[in-house]
Write a structure and sequence with these properties.
12 strands; 315 residues; binds S-adenosylmethionine; alpha/beta; globular
């Protein structure tokens, strides 16, 4: 169903209607090259201010709210606001997101630094009280490391941002197995004690830890669009797979070109998102359609980082 008004354009799309009868394959590790989950999923995209978009949504609707808000860094889509005004605006959005959060749900708020005249202000430290003060619990402060960015001359070049993972309560959805990564020594065995000779690590791989390395979406990235700061889809996939189950719903209140929605839909989760820039919403809608058609290219989860010291960069 699609309806347009002069201010709001909202698209509701349904993926894979022909496969609705296929059985779910729960409990199996995801095939990281597969473009789709088996479950048909719905997408709800709007060109709308997020506070307006959220107003009509019932409490507790989303198992995962994952977003990267504007950083106040003077990107083309931002009006450079004073930090206090920025935090006041974030406060309202966060309050409304918490209303929409499922009791077993998670919020992942991804930010970097506000840079003011060469001084850096780590935004997650300023946002912390807005979540903690409303009773959410911080489970991890994930450091996302990437290789490319501005080269600084008067300080070290910044090569990480953070994702603060908050849960609504202590009983939260959490699946470690789908996001395990290969162990360093997969064949290592106990050499003494009652388990002597048995594998000492989990054969499905190890916990990926709280430091993640994914290439950021720069010009040569397969997912690059006109958006100046997209999420890499694989980063959100890791959050979706570990913090939701098939059939849950995922929301991005600052959707951009819809990378979080793509990650959710790929794995059979319903997805909703909004953005105030019409061009971004059009691209997001197009990307969802390409996902449905099986033509959307995303960087596969688990693909090694390009390493110039290895033949063919290690790929
Ligand atoms: C850092 S970008 C997010 C990019 C997104 N993660 C992606 O992968 O494309 C922030 C986005 O927030 C949008 N935005 C800014 N203010 C907004 C508002 N009040 N409501 C909805 N979206 C807004 C901007 O247009 C921008 O696309």
């Amino acid at each position: 169903m699609t309806h347009d008004t002069t201010r709001v354009s909202r698209q509701q799309l349904s993926l894979l209607p022909d496969e609705a009868e296929q059985p779910l394959q729960r409990g199996e590790p995801p095939n990281q090259e597969e473009p789709f989950s088996v479950r048909p999923a719905r997408a709800d995209l709007a060109c709308q201010d997020n506070l307006e978009f959220m107003r009509s949504i019932p409490d507790g609707s989303f198992k995962l709210i994952v977003t990267s808000p504007p950083y106040n860094l003077g990107k083309p889509y931002e009006r450079k606001a004073e930090l206090d005004a920025y935090l006041e605006q974030q406060d309202q959005v966060i309050e409304e997101c918490i209303r929409l959060l499922h009791p077993k749900g998670s919020i992942c708020w991804q930010v970097g630094n506000f840079v003011d005249n060469g001084e850096i202000v780590p935004l997650d430290t300023l946002l912390y009280p807005l979540f903690r003060g409303r009773g959410l619990r911080l489970r991890n402060r994930i450091v996302w490391h990437f290789g490319h960015g501005l080269h600084c001359t008067n300080r070290l070049s910044g090569r990480y941002e953070t994702i603060n993972w908050w849960t609504a309560g202590d009983d939260y959805t959490w699946n470690l197995d789908p996001i395990r990564v290969p162990s360093k020594y997969p064949n290592k065995r106990h050499f003494k004690g009652p388990n002597i000779g048995k594998l000492s690590g989990n054969p499905m791989g190890k916990n990926p830890s709280d430091v993640w390395e994914f290439p950021n979406v720069k010009s040569n990235h397969v997912e690059k669009t006109i958006h100046p700061c997209q999420f890499p889809v694989e980063l959100v996939e890791r959050l979706v797979l570990s913090m939701t189950n098939e059939g849950d719903a995922v929301f991005d209140p600052y959707m951009g070109v819809g990378s979080a929605l793509i990650a959710a839909l790929k794995h059979g989760r319903d997805a909703a998102g909004c953005d105030i820039v019409e061009e971004y919403v059009e691209i997001a809608t197009q990307r969802v359609a390409e996902l449905e058609a099986g033509t959307l290219r995303t960087r596969p989860m688990g693909k090694p980082i390009y390493d110039p010291s290895l033949p063919r960069g290690g790929h």
